[in-house]
């Protein structure tokens, strides 16, 4: 397996806000410490999709990285989302994140403009050339409109600072081919694929569900890595109802994660518009699925 600078059991952390919608840095530090100390996470991704990056300013993004880096130190790897549709802005965000203490940066495919593959590759190379920390590529074509094609991944793997991939392409064959041909550290970005991707060589996951159920999500990988395949399958299957309700039932993962965190009295706060809070009925259903998942693990 490739050695990864980003961790193994990585949480795509929400960005806590106060009741007025402002950045809650104390809450962010408390939540980050919880995720690392008790939540089964050895890495955190900040300012990603789950972190509501489209609605936070550059200054807020940098402040969040600084605060979380202070809170967790070297107990976990901190990867900062720095993606935008503008290469120059992405470079600026990446440099600011590195200066604020991030151990790596997560760079999403430029969205909306739908650049051709060589332009996509040049975007990533430009960002990687601009920083001194490892780069994780974020392949999520359902949101960006553009895939990082496997052949493009193979070329990008030659760059000395492009070290990993957060894989939300839902193409097991394509991912397996790149894993087999490169030293890129692959991470499942879709919890239902955590175990299948690990079986073909991925090193771990970047998970929204880990905000609330990190130990339960990690249990499947832990069992698999011990060679306990049947146990790994049981853990994976037990978490599927919660995964489905949080990630595939019509609401964004940010909304469902914050609903559960607030119900569990962990730092979270509201989501920012245009997102809206989960309804009481949905929150109740989420809590029931969460309690079933946690009880099943006990």
UniProtKB/TrEMBL annotation:
InterPro entries on file: Aldolase_TIM, DapA, DapA-like, Schiff_base-form_aldolases_AS, Schiff_base-form_aldolases_CS
Q: Which CDD domains match?
A: DHDPS (cd00950)
Listed EC numbers: 4.3.3.7
Which SMART domains does this one have?
A: DHDPS
Tell me what reaction this enzyme catalyses: L-aspartate 4-semialdehyde + pyruvate = (2S,4S)-4-hydroxy-2,3,4,5-tetrahydrodipicolinate + H2O + H(+)
Q: Which UniProt keywords apply?
A: Amino-acid biosynthesis, Cytoplasm, Diaminopimelate biosynthesis, Lyase, Lysine biosynthesis, Schiff base
Positions bearing the site annotation: Part of a proton relay during catalysis = 49, 112
Annotated residues that bind pyruvate are located at: 50, 206
Compartments where located = Cytoplasm
Q: What's one Pfam family here?
A: DHDPS
* Pathway(s) of this molecule: Amino-acid biosynthesis; L-lysine biosynthesis via DAP pathway; (S)-tetrahydrodipicolinate from L-aspartate: step 3/4
Annotated GO biological process: diaminopimelate biosynthetic process; lysine biosynthetic process via diaminopimelate
Give the residues annotated as active site.
138, 166
GO cellular component, alphabetical, reads: cytosol
**What main location does UniProt list?**
cytoplasm
GO terms assigned for molecular function = 4-hydroxy-tetrahydrodipicolinate synthase activity
Q: Does the keyword Cytoplasm apply?
A: yes
Q: Which HAMAP family match?
A: DapA
In terms of PANTHER family, this protein maps to:
4-HYDROXY-2-OXOGLUTARATE ALDOLASE, MITOCHONDRIAL, DIHYDRODIPICOLINATE SYNTHASE
- Family, similarity comment: Belongs to the DapA family.
Q: What does this protein do?
A: Catalyzes the condensation of (S)-aspartate-beta-semialdehyde [(S)-ASA] and pyruvate to 4-hydroxy-tetrahydrodipicolinate (HTPA).
Q: What is this protein called?
A: 4-hydroxy-tetrahydrodipicolinate synthase
Q: Which organism is it from?
A: Streptomyces netropsis (Streptoverticillium netropsis)
Q: What's the encoding gene here?
A: dapA
């Amino acid at each position: 397996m490739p050695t990864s600078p980003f961790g193994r059991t990585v949480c795509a952390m929400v960005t806590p806000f106060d009741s007025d919608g402002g950045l809650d840095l104390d809450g962010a530090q408390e939540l980050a410490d919880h995720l690392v100390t008790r939540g089964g996470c050895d890495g955190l991704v900040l300012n990603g999709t789950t972190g509501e990056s489209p609605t936070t300013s550059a200054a807020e993004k940098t402040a969040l990285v600084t605060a979380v880096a202070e809170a967790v130190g070297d107990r976990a790897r901190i990867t900062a989302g720095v993606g935008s549709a503008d290469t120059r802005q992405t470079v600026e965000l990446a440099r600011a994140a590195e200066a604020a203490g991030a151990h790596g940066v997560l760079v999403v495919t430029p969205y909306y403009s739908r650049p051709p593959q060589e332009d996509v590759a040049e975007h990533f190379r430009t960002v990687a050339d601009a920083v001194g920390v490892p780069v994780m590529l974020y392949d999520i074509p359902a949101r960006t409109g553009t895939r990082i094609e496997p052949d493009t991944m193979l070329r990008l793997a030659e760059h000395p600072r492009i070290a990993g991939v957060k894989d939300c392409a839902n193409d097991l064959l394509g991912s397996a081919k790149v894993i087999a041909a490169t030293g890129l550290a692959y991470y499942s970005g879709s919890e239902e694929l955590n175990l299948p991707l690990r079986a073909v060589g991925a090193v771990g996951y970047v998970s929204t569900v880990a905000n609330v159920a990190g130990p339960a999500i990690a249990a499947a990988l832990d069992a698999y890595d011990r060679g306990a395949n049947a146990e790994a399958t049981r853990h994976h299957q037990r978490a599927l109802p919660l995964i489905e309700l949080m990630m595939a039932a019509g609401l964004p993962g940010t909304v469902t994660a914050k609903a559960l965190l607030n119900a569990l009295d962990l730092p979270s706060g509201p989501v920012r518009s245009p997102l809206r809070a989960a309804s009481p009925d949905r929150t109740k259903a989420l809590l029931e699925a969460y309690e079933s998942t946690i009880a099943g693990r006990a």
